[in-house]
Amino acid sequence: MSETNPRLRAELEGIPTYKPGKPAAAADGPAAYKLSSNENPYPPLPGVMESALAAAGSFNRYPDMACTALMSELADRFGVPTSHIATGTGSVGVAQQLLQATSGPGDEVIYAWRSFEAYPIITQVSGATSVRVPLTDGEVHDLDAMADAITDRTRLIFVCNPNNPTGTVVRRAELERFLDRVPKDVLVVLDEAYREFIRDPEVPDGIEIYRDRPNVCVLRTFSKAYGLAGLRVGFAVAHEPVAAALRKTAVPFGVSQLAQDAAVASLRAEDELMGRVGSLVNERTRVVEALRGQGWTVPETQANFVWLRLGDRTADFAAACEKAGVVVRPFAGEGMRATIGETEANDIFLQAAEAFRKEL
Ligand SMILES: Cc1ncc(COP(=O)(O)O)c(C=O)c1O
């Protein structure tokens, strides 16, 4: 066999691989609960299961490529024209399309760090250069520093609100001030994957912000509050040129019929879904207060997870949690993120955190 391999793009070298949250059944122990991927612990609502099962009967057919029913449901739900909506294979799929549409070699993409770990990966795949702006000491986006980082080469800026993995938010006044400083030809992506968990009234709804700002695009997902992570469906709301670019860069038939129908059914069962989200928010309050009571510093979280900055104790903390029966998401040398899950899982996490704290 020849030694010559197919030529691959140099940009692919050194791309960090996306680390999915570890599954609950770890090879080296019987951890029972997965708190490592910010999933929803509730099973799909009954109507969702029925529509998904019905869609399964037509698996020999391609899905509706235009996602007609879902688009029209979303347009009604958010009061936006269907021409302003673009669906994709999870919001991370849509984020990748946004990069394809805006950025390439020589261009720059700004985001806070630490933030969602897909940003560096999809930026590097596009060939553009990542410009990471450290979070403030309070673990919040430093929007002034992000605006200062804009150059002639900047094409796209991610603002993750709430931020994954810290759960922290940027509020209306600071976001508006930041957007006023961004040149109109630079796309700002408000990644609102955890929007439904926000209870702070000062955090703006991106869909209100985008209306009179043609360079703002909002990303939402059915993976978190709506509990459809396994089906891969997310969407963007943006003005027509951006939404049209997303349709051009979409993988044809990328969103399965099952995902489309389940998303529609979830939107129709929203009252019940939001009841579940409310319970998770109550659990979040309980977990944060308990952790603080144990002496931990916990940043204010508006998402379905909590963040502890642990530095070089991160791996030990994660191992202690796993031994106790919950898998959390460690970021080596930095800290760990734990999803708010079932009450029993949260209790085990709190007990593990308390025991670890006492050993310090
Ligand atoms: C901030 C943020 N954006 C986007 C996503 C992607 O979600 P999905 O591709 O499942 O819609 C995630 C998932 O963890 C996330 O944390």
Automatic annotation (TrEMBL):
One of its GO terms (biological process) is L-histidine biosynthetic process. The keyword Electron transport does not apply. Its cofactor is pyridoxal 5'-phosphate. Its EC number is 2.6.1.57. The modification N6-(pyridoxal phosphate)lysine is found at residue 224. Residues 1-12 have a biased composition (Basic and acidic residues). It catalyses: an aromatic L-alpha-amino acid + 2-oxoglutarate = an aromatic oxo-acid + L-glutamate. It is an enzyme of class 2 (transferase). Keywords: Aminotransferase, Pyridoxal phosphate, Transferase. InterPro entries: Aminotrans_II_pyridoxalP_BS, Aminotransferase_I/II_large, ArAT, HisP_aminotrans, HistidinolP_aminotransfase, PyrdxlP-dep_Trfase, PyrdxlP-dep_Trfase_major, PyrdxlP-dep_Trfase_small. Residues 1-24 are annotated as: Disordered. CDD domains: AAT_like. Residues 34-346 form the Aminotransferase class I/classII large domain. GO terms for molecular function: aromatic-amino-acid transaminase activity; histidinol-phosphate transaminase activity; pyridoxal phosphate binding. Belongs to the class-II pyridoxal-phosphate-dependent aminotransferase family. Homodimer. Aminotransferase that catalyzes the conversion of aromatic amino acids and 2-oxoglutarate into corresponding aromatic oxo acids and L-glutamate. This is Aromatic amino acid aminotransferase. It comes from Streptomyces venezuelae. The lineage of its organism: Bacteria, Bacillati, Actinomycetota, Actinomycetes, Kitasatosporales.
